[in-house]
Amino acid sequence: MKIVHIILGKANPLEKNGVNCVVNELLTKQVEFRMDAELWGITFHPVDDYPERNYKTVLFKQSMLPFNLPAKMRKAILQLKGQAVIFHIHGGFVPVFSRITRALHKAGLPFVFTPHGSYNTLAMQRNSGIKRLYLRFFEKRLLKDAMRVHCLGNSEMEELKRILPGAEPTLLHYGFNSGQDPFLPRPTDIGKFIVGYCGDIDIHPNGLDLLLGAFSGVLNRKPDAEMWIIGDGKELPRLKRMIHHLNMDQHVHCLGAKYGREKYELLLKCTVFVHPSRNGISMESALEAASMGIPLVVSCATNLKEPVLRYGAGIVINNNDVWELRQALLDIMLLPSEEYLEMSKNAHRMLLRDFNWCKLLEGFSSMYETHEGLDSSYNKYVPNR
To answer: Which of 52, 107, 339, 355 has the fewest CB atoms within 10 Å of its CB?
Structure first.
């Protein structure tokens, strides 16, 4: 059976686009495990300007009219009519997807739909009036026609069930592969206490206001503590003003966007990784920290509550307020060295067991196979060598 992923973009992992990055990783792993998967990308610039990849990529010219289905894509869909194929659409509130999914439904071709956080509570509050209208006239039909709706977190699951009563979405997260050095146990002597954050500088959605407030309380107990903020965004100047207002310029360092080895080596020096998100976001940065054995302090909105608690990989902030976050940081700071080392090992163990691509691809396989009559012979998980 063929799997065709459709996105806006080219799944270029070098671009600052979470959906493109995770779809690239999913496709790469599916092909490594001998699945017949390819990408259809819709872009204003249909040129092959992305790194070498192991999967077929077909690019279609995006129209200036948001609802226009590219003519070549319509033809490509009709050519697959009657074949063993399933489509996987990535991204919510994308006008052209309403036309694509209608064409798929008309051709009798099944599709899975992943909103990628578009339906979580905070995201739905943005431009809520426009989104309500769009849902009524376009998105609800897409949701009803989908063979399966795939959610990445509980917040989005709950909102989807409110939008579409009776919906039975599939909850399945993505895997993670750091591609860096093998895990080495962290030192039992914590030494300098460094709080790490990596992600977009989007203050309210990512809870950076909470993080600054909590860290201010930490400094009262440990004046030599530091916080490293890795990332960029339009609110970086405002964040720096907040840091200055709290008199923490000597302790909080905004390091800008970092990638590859440089980011890896910075995170490796952190004592604890924190993400107090208010939004249902990609958990990639927290998983990257876990791959290095860095204990986590995360909010429920990161969709990591259950595995972090089950493995003892860190602390989950249930109320996501300054006081609870400050206490969690102090609790990590005051851990005996043996308990800190155990939490470090647990973080890495969580990544290996719950975010292992081989295991998760079985879940994707089952999700695709829920359509009766599809050939399941591709479900042979033997990686290509």
So the answer is: 52
